[in-house]
Design a protein that fits this description.
With about 250 residues, the chain is of the alpha/beta class. It is built from nine helices and eight strands.
């Protein structure tokens, strides 16, 4: 099966980083409607066919939301590319998408209050993977998953251990690890941030633009529509770094 991808211009940039021989962690998005989840779906589908037998993952804070959003988009991606219905199936017992050629995609729930150190992820071995809405998770979850990729057939296929992340603007580790260095022009080569907003997605920008403009909360509207990362939870926009430096 040949998956012919026709990405948007920003998705194309993200694909370039995913396929190069040095970038390992790619944050794609930074706003609503930029084609984040579609990028993940096509990437997982493409690699499942090109590298038979690989083991990858799509992770999100809550499995329920992953199934209600990401998995729905996954089905749309498969329908768009006319994937035969018997080429893959969902193993609901283990939350795994399985392909006839042996490739698998684990659907991971990484919100386990009873496992604050994410020890249950410690024995997993993956080729690579993706984290949806990474603004919702803790840095430690990302840190542990970094150690689990590159452990399944990577050498055989010549694949780097990579993780793709999607998110709207947030004030967790994404701000300090990706956005701030990207804005300052100091982002290390193994990291990449591709900003994709609703206007960068020609397929949905008209309707998304209208919907996002109707959000009444100013900060939420600027975050999701304009991709503003410098915000404060009290509803004002300000220099976040100045806030963090207030006691020093």
């Amino acid at each position: 099966m040949v998956v012919q991808v026709k990405p948007t211009s920003k998705q194309y940039l993200a694909w370039q980083k995913w396929l190069d021989n040095h970038t390992r962690f790619i944050l794609f998005g930074g706003g609503a409607g930029g084609g984040k989840t579609w990028w993940i779906g096509e990437k997982r589908l493409y690699e499942a066919y090109v590298y038979p037998g690989i083991r990858s993952f799509i992770a999100r804070k809550e499995l329920k939301r992953l199934m209600q959003s990401t998995y729905v988009t996954w089905n749309k991606v498969c329908q768009y590319h006319r994937i035969p219905k018997d080429d893959w199936w969902l193993d609901g017992k283990y939350n795994v998408i399985r392909f006839k050629n042996g490739s698998t995609i684990d659907l991971l729930d990484i919100d386990y209050p009873s496992d604050p150190l994410y020890e249950r992820l410690g024995s997993l071995e993956y080729t690579n993977g993706d984290i949806e809405e990474a603004g919702e998770i803790q840095f430690l979850a990302f840190d542990v998953l970094k150690s689990r990729v590159g452990r399944h057939r990577n050498q055989e296929f010549g694949l780097l251990p990579k993780i793709g992340l999607t998110s709207n603007p947030s004030k967790n580790f994404l701000y300090t690890l990706f956005y701030k260095p990207w804005k300052a022009g100091t982002l290390p080569d193994q990291y990449a941030f591709i900003q994709s907003l609703y206007g960068d997605n020609e397929h949905t920008k008209e309707i998304y633009g209208k919907q996002l403009a109707e959000i009444t909360d100013r900060v939420t509207r600027l975050r999701l529509k304009e991709g503003i990362w410098e915000y404060d939870s009290d509803g004002s926009l300000m220099d976040y770094d100045a806030i963090t430096d207030i006691f020093s």
